[in-house]
Amino acid sequence: MFTHYPIKRSVLVPMLLYVQDELGYLSDEAIAEIARRVDTTELEVRNVISYYSMLRTRPIGKYNLQVCTNISCMLRGAEEVFDHCRKKLGIGHKGTTADGQFSLEEVECIGACSWAPAMQVNYEFHEQLTDEKVDQVIEKYRNL
Ligand code: FES
């Protein structure tokens, strides 16, 4: 993996995503090992993790609904979308359903402003959301 990047540190984010996909989250042990392999400190690794909303240090549900409530989405009803998700799933910000299927998060811009309001579920984007679309999205994942 290191041979594809100009300096060791450049591999940090791809490595974090890879490890997270494998483990479900970035454990203390994983962070320590990644820091060792990239020749950096655990603190630096944690700083990078805290910057990216897709990276997490605790287990979450199988499907993570990340609803953008930043300005473009907010102006097009993102807070109502988030509220609908909250009621539909019965959980709040950073909550996980009892069956471990869904987690919910309010996040900053996910780069889909032109199609606001938007959310990301794991690696899939869902845009121009309405209550009905949110219901369809949740049902889709519930039936996978
Ligand atoms: S403001 Fe929501 S995707 Fe950019």
Written description of the protein model:
By secondary structure, the protein is of the alpha+beta class. The protein has two domains: 48 residues, Arc Repressor Mutant, subunit A, CATH 1.10.10; 80 residues, 3-Layer(aba) Sandwich (Glutaredoxin), CATH 3.40.30. 43% of the residues lie in helices and 14% in strands. The protein has six helices and five strands; from the N terminus they run H-H-H-E-H-H-E-E-E-E-H. The protein has a five-stranded mixed sheet with strand order 2-3-1-4-5, covered by helices on one side. Strand 4 and strand 5 form a beta hairpin. Helix 1 runs antiparallel to helix 2 and helix 2 crosses helix 3. The model has no long low-confidence stretch (mean pLDDT 95). The site of FE2/S2 (inorganic) cluster has 12 residues, from helix 4. FE2/S2 (inorganic) cluster binds next to helix 4.
Keywords summarizing the entry:
binds FE2/S2 (inorganic) cluster; single chain; 6 helices; 5-stranded mixed β-sheet; 144 residues; Arc Repressor Mutant, subunit A; 5 strands; Glutaredoxin; alpha+beta; 43% helix
Shape verdict: elongated
CATH topology of the largest domain: Glutaredoxin
Uncertain residue ranges: none
| Measured distance between first and last alpha carbons | 32 Å
Helix fraction bin? 40-55%
Cofactors and ligands:
FE2/S2 (inorganic) cluster
CATH class of the largest domain: Alpha Beta
CA radius of gyration is 17 Å
CATH superfamily of the largest domain: Glutaredoxin
Number of strands: 5
Tally the helices: what do you get?
Answer: 6
How many structural domains can be distinguished in the coordinates?
2
Percentage beta strand:
5-15%
Name the strands of the widest sheet in spatial order: 2-3-1-4-5
What sequence of helices (H) and strands (E) makes up the elements? HHHEHHEEEEH
Mean pLDDT across the residues is 95
For the sheet with most strands, the description reads: 5 strands, mixed
Structural class call reads: alpha+beta
